[in-house]
Amino acid sequence: MLITMATRILKLPGRWFIPQVKYFQSQPKHLQILPRSSLSTTACKNNEDAEKPKTTELPWQRSSYKYFLPIQTRWSDNDQYGHVNNVIYYSYFDSIINHYLIHFCGLNTNVQTSKIVGYMVDTRCTFREPISFPEIALAGLAISHIGRSSVQYSVAIFAEKKNQHAKSHDVNYPDHNETACAIGQCTHVFVDTSTNRPIKLPDMMREALEKISLNNGTNPTSKL
Fold it and tell me: Which pairs from 80-89 meet CB under 8 Å and 24+ separation?
């Protein structure tokens, strides 16, 4: 709101007379508040619906994930509360995602020779219960969406069952819980290293990603 001050000095015989200062409130038209009757309730409702973000409920059960990687927690992962700090979970997500991309999708991580690189543009994590060193965490991975140049991953961390130490060589992972202690979602956008612009996913990468897609009903369990 703009405040405009107006004064007028008058010359009267023998003295100056300054009238009382008056203030006028003015407001740019684009900031004016319209009366309620002039608003279209239908238009407002449609606008709210259009801006409402689409949310996907992430799975907590181990049966929803297609690829697994045991991850040894480290002494340095624990914080002063005695459990793995929340930021460390993102490094576990990075580990299983890139492990699959390198071993099965042909991703070349040498930026000097690679023609394609993935940028992580979105990450999130929801926690259910803590884990701590010296547990062996079990990371689970599945693909929730494959776009032209982007990939959305569903990831989860499964804790060891109580009073059991996981045998990391056992491919069935019987010593880990069936319900995740944390779940997350990450999104990669792959770009051309020479132009830094989004690039179409290579066919080999797309085929490998589709094998662990949530839309793939075969539900295979991958080995290391």
Answer: 82/132, 83/130, 83/131, 83/132, 84/130, 84/131, 84/132, 84/133, 84/137, 86/125, 86/127, 89/125, 89/127, 89/157, 89/182, 89/184
Give the DSSP H or E segment for 92: helix 88-104
Q: Is the dihedral of CA 104, 105, 106, 111 positive or negative?
A: negative
pLDDT over 60 at 214, yes or no: yes
pLDDT at 170: 60
Give the per-residue pLDDT at 58: 72
Q: Find the angle CA(214)-CA(52)-CA(181) to the nearest 5 degrees.
A: 45
Q: Is the distance from CB of 123 to CB of 90 less than 8 angstroms?
A: yes
Compute the distance between CA of residue 68 and CA of residue 145 in angstroms, rounded to an integer.
18
Question: What is the percent of the chain with per-residue pLDDT over 90, rounded to a whole number?
Answer: 60
CA–CA gap between residue 30 and residue 160 (Å, rounded) = 60
For 165-187, how does the pLDDT look when each residue is reduced to its tens digit (9 = 90+)? 666 556 678 889 999 999 999 99
pLDDT value at 74 more than 80: yes
Query: Rounded to 5 degrees, what are φ and ψ at 203?
Result: -60, -40
Task: Find, among 101, 102, 91, the residue nearest to 139 by Cα.
Answer: 91
Q: 180, 158 in Cβ contact below 8 A?
A: yes
The whole-angstrom separation of Cα 145 and Cα 29 is 45
The pTM assigned to this predicted structure is 0.70
